[in-house]
Amino acid sequence: MGLIAGSKMDPYLNIPLVSAWESEEVLDTAFLRVRYEMEFWNHLGDAKCQDFRMVEIGEAARHDCSERLHLYDSIAGAGGDMLTVEQETVYPAEWILLPDKRVRCRFRLVKLLSILQYEEKRGNLEWHLVQETDSIAGYVCQKAETEYRGREYEAWYCPAIPVDGGPYVFGGLPGLIIRVVDKRGDYSWEMRGLEKGRWPVTERQIVLQKVSPVQARKQIERVYANPCRIWKSMGYWITVHDMEKGDWHMATEDDIQDCGLFYPKSVIRLWVDCPLMSC
């Protein structure tokens, strides 16, 4: 019997890495790479998290992914001893904006579970340009506002950088978006770096589960609500570290019932029989 995972269950830390892929499909040629700092509240709304996003902008396609996940995938793929991200938070979604107004999203669930992929149409953002300027990251920016999926956003774009682009699905302004803020304060992106050049925008061909947007949301909610019940149904043995008693015990039904992400007993371990390998 071997240990598969043992850690605090945090959906922004315990992200599985992709250590193997069959090939990389070239989608476009990027001429600009922008580094954004993303801040977001966790799904419980009690802690602010941070990720650095790498956004590659081409004439026809745009790729937005976690810089940390991209780096750690590359290390794992080269044989490095990394299975998950443990020390730095990431936002576990990757977005590819395609030329026919489709958005392809890959969402990584926690350890040992699937990477989901779904596609949906991206509507045109209707921007209201505001006669207000500010200096952000050393650039003179102008303000614009829009609404997307029930949220109101405030964006600051730089006319001196005449590029239609930004993080996530944002674009359509007469200049590169330097900062975007959700007016509720749940999400924000701010540019931290800019690189010009020519390099391919690629998509790694990996093992994943293709679902509809509705199926993806239901599965994410189910996993976040109780990953332990899903692991148990897959045949993993779960042990729990009780912080009050200071000992480990096999998870009871009450433990499983309580085991949402950000598990209150702090640490769990997953075990599985491994007769053919050293786990």
Q: Which stretches are poorly predicted, pLDDT < 50 over at least 5 residues?
A: 1-8, 262-268, 270-279
**Average of the residue pLDDT scores:** 81
What does the radius of gyration come to?
21 Å
Helix content: 10-25%
Number of distinct beta strands: 18
Major beta sheet, specifics?
A: 12 strands, mixed
Helix-strand string: EEEEEHEEEEEEEEEEHHEEHE
Spatial strand sequence of the major β-sheet: 10-11-12-13-14-3-4-5-7-8-9-15
Distance between the termini: 8 Å
Q: What overall form do the CA principal axes indicate?
A: globular
Strand content: over 45%
Structural class: mainly beta
Q: Give the helix tally.
A: 4
Structure description:
The protein has four helices and 18 strands. The protein is mainly β and 279 residues long. The strands form three sheets. A twelve-stranded mixed β-sheet has the order 10-11-12-13-14-3-4-5-7-8-9-15. The protein has a four-stranded antiparallel β-sheet with strand order 1-18-16-17, with helices on one face. It starts with a strand and ends in a 7-residue tail after the last strand.
